[in-house]
Amino acid sequence: MALGLFGIGLLAIVAIFLTPILSDSDPALWLYLTAMLAPIGFILGVFFALWSGRRSR
Question: Which residue has the higher pLDDT, 53 or 37?
């Protein structure tokens, strides 16, 4: 789940940078909102990795 959110967010970031290059318009608001999934996915990934890690004895 976290990897999917992170990947979708990265694709949105790439689309934000490619939109002005490929067309003369500004990126849409939904791209900026979707790009916010990248840090959320990263934080969830770190949280899940730490949560499922080995416990100290």
Answer: 37
